[in-house]
């Protein structure tokens, strides 16, 4: 039977047999998921005896007595087979193929009948949703994902047997249950489901979110009831420690508002209700305007001013965000062209490229056509992408951003550090600028730790040859911290709030500007040596990628030394090899792009000509970095921010010691 089970339509089974009797055969059939569904006719000696009762309890479908009457056996077999085939046909139509639960159409139909036939019984509809199920599929494979779904279905089915529930799988990882509402029954069902499902053997913890709709309006269709339960489940998603949410009027009101926004969005675009506001970016050294970010606002004729937080998430869900982004790109280019035509003065403006835009294969063509339409170049426009887009489809993002970079656009990574950042993302994406979320140092009691994180990220950006913009800067304290950390640019309420394009234009045309370095010219910017005026026979080489740091040290020592500046270790090493006999002391930063201070120290120590030149390391205070630098041959360590008195004393001490050693 195991071999031919798919071809067996019915089984005629005697009870009394040697080796394996009929009862044992029935017990074995019950264990097999295919054989257990095949109809079995049991042969008995007479009607109504105990053997007949036992056989039926073990799963027999019918019985016949001996001696056999061929016509009766044929008739009963034909009826059983027809009933079995009809039941299988119903199962195919009503059941979910993977889990064996009802499919959603069958659930809607049966649930409607139950609710209609029992007007005095209170019911709940419970929606179950597996959080981050796509990640499970991607990590462990679709086969493992299917196993998990079958496991969940089995647990739900087991609960339904004791609680008299109706269960269905309605979508990939979504399940629906209709159950009677009794005291604490719903919460107990959810608690049991969580405990049972959490036992699933997977290294990743399985989180199930539940949404509950207490049926209080029987006039709406069951499909709408299920939608309400699913919406409630979505409310619980992403909230740590919250397993379930009840559908209430606040969810309904929000949906009504969302629908009104959706109904108005196309009209708003046609009637120019969306406005581009600009928020300035500032060079942290000069505090002059160096760029701007384009931000969209909705000025509705009835609702008034609307924050992006009210409509952007809705547009991202319904896909309208792409049309709005194109509008913003076009309007921003129009504004930049106006600056150039009016005063031949401009700063680059960054615009948002949403996650939805990334999946548009025509995105590079759309952007380049908009730029050309206004007589601009790609360098006029910076494109902001979010790090969350990398977690959704990394390869798609890499391909699109690479094409945009090849066209000449500057790429900014927005809100870096607020999501699921990874070093892979920084190494794989052709990014030019990191935008840091200043929520890092909003809380004073976490200041030291967050300052270290900021220092690490800014240092990492320098290693990767990236510029840094800190956004959300609101206090002088934050500005001071960012200056000490060598951040390049800032943006936030401390300097200026987002403003109308006309107001920004007036401010720009009447202000000093500090041009942001074009990322395409970064290599030239970061690979140069500046030789100052010869004021002394002694020469100090200052190696630091930040011009502000070089300027401070130069001011301290320009009366005592001829100052030579290098912007990274590589260009410094090239200069040292040709001028080693002329250099009396080196002031060396540790964290720099291209070649860092540690690598330069190593090269100096390995060179007979350069080994004796004293080096003072200048970097952020830290026991590990200081110890490592001194171990590698540095003569002294000087922490940032600089103190002139300390700096002068350290230099004098090191030079004095060096002259003693030489003598």
From TrEMBL:
InterPro entries: CheY-like_superfamily, Cyclic-di-GMP_PDE-like, EAL_dom, EAL_sf, GGDEF_dom, Nucleotide_cyclase, Rev_trsase/Diguanyl_cyclase, Sig_transdc_resp-reg_receiver
Native source species: bioreactor metagenome
Listed name of the protein: Regulator of RpoS
The gene coding this protein: rssB_36
One of the GO biological process terms: phosphorelay signal transduction system
GO molecular function annotation: cyclic-guanylate-specific phosphodiesterase activity
SUPFAM superfamilies per record: CheY-like (SSF52172), EAL domain-like (SSF141868), Nucleotide cyclase (SSF55073)
PROSITE patterns: EAL, GGDEF, RESPONSE_REGULATORY
Domain EAL: 258-512
